[in-house]
Write a structure and sequence with these properties.
The chain has 5 helices and 14 strands. With about 200 residues, the protein is α+β, with helices and mostly antiparallel strands. It has a single domain, classed as Electron Transport, Fmn-binding Protein, Chain A (Pnp Oxidase, Chain A), CATH 2.30.110. The chain is globular and about 50 Å long.
């Protein structure tokens, strides 16, 4: 057994180790909008549920050389965003949106994705997604590191959207959705075998 002290690792080394341990990770494909109306889209795998009541999700967005990414900045300005599920049909386009573009450039436009009107927020959704959650900013936290910082965005879900064919008894059929998860490095994973376990009483 090897013992590793995170203090002995730099940011890149900690990232490499963490992202190979905490797997698989769901990928939040987030649209946000600048005050000038430019639609930003980017994937984030530091993402999860916080609570069902109230319905809250969290996404962590690391800064680059201390500078906030467009997604963080836009959410803090407009206090709205949309989280889309990354699946087998859209993962390649989602990956393309991770390119480093200038704030005045739209990843949606560059990748040929189709913006569509959201039901409860002003930020557009992406048509090429089967499941999405419209969110309003609930809380913003900042965690400072030695060389950088991370913005933690907590969003309150104000609307769910799911294609009819995926819904069954108040749930999304995961087997039909075919979500894609993030592993370490350049690796992704498909759903794989599904099994059930009964919880003990």
């Amino acid at each position: 057994m090897t013992v590793i002290d995170p203090k002995d690792l730099n940011k890149k080394e900690n990232y490499r180790l963490l992202t190979s341990i905490v797997t698989p990770r769901p990928i939040a494909f987030i649209t946000s909008m600048s005050e000038k109306g430019i639609i930003n889209a980017a994937p984030f795998s530091y993402f999860n549920i916080i609570s069902a009541d109230p319905p809250l999700i969290s996404v962590s967005i690391g800064r680059k050389q201390g500078i906030q990414k467009d997604t963080s900045r836009n959410i803090l300005q407009t206090e709205e965003f949309v989280v889309h599920v990354t699946d087998e049909d859209n993962v390649k386009q989602v990956n393309e949106t991770s390119a480093n573009l200038k704030p005045e450039e739209s990843e949606v436009k560059k990748t040929g994705l189709t913006p569509t009107v959201s039901s409860k927020v002003g930020v557009p959704s992406i048509k090429e997604t089967a499941v999405r959650m419209e969110c309003r900013l609930e809380k913003h936290l900042v965690f400072e590191g030695e060389d950088s910082a991370t913005d933690v965005i907590i969003g309150r879900i104000v609307s769910y959207y799911a294609e009819d064919k995926l819904l069954s008894e108040g749930r999304v059929r995961t087997d039909k959705l075919q979500p894609v998860s993030r592993l370490g490095g350049k690796q992704y994973a498909k759903l794989g075998k599904i099994f059930e376990l009964e919880r003990p009483e």
